[in-house]
Model the fold of this input.
Amino acid sequence: MGFDQYHEPPDELPAATRTFARLCASLTEEAEAIGWYEQRLAVETDPEATAIMRDAQGEEFKHFSMDLESLLRRTPRWREIARGVLFQPGDIVEHGEEAEADVNSEGVSSVADDPAGSLAIGSLRGSVR
Done:
């Protein structure tokens, strides 16, 4: 039985690549769910239904973020580019181009500098800027 997230025969892929593909599929599904809730919230007029859907969308935000963090921990090059783009004021495209150029010019080893591999997003909880 084939799966849409594979573009190569699954039985030829290493387990880590199959896990990576499943996480990518999960990330996509969470993003879709966030968008569906956004559409529902845009048209819903019942306050109780709105509150329930807003809470459910918050769960999808959490799941998307967890999938993304897991993928970034597994992919140092992606993580470094993300560090140059995420949570930066200013032009997003410009930051993306700069981050990609930096990673390409410096190279990124397969071993993360941060053993936890985190973007430290969790450490922002409760912080004041």
About this structure: The radius of gyration is 18 Å. Confidence is low (pLDDT under 50) at residues 110-129. The helical segments are 15-43, 47-74, 76-85, 92-106. Residues 15-43 form the longest helix (29 residues).
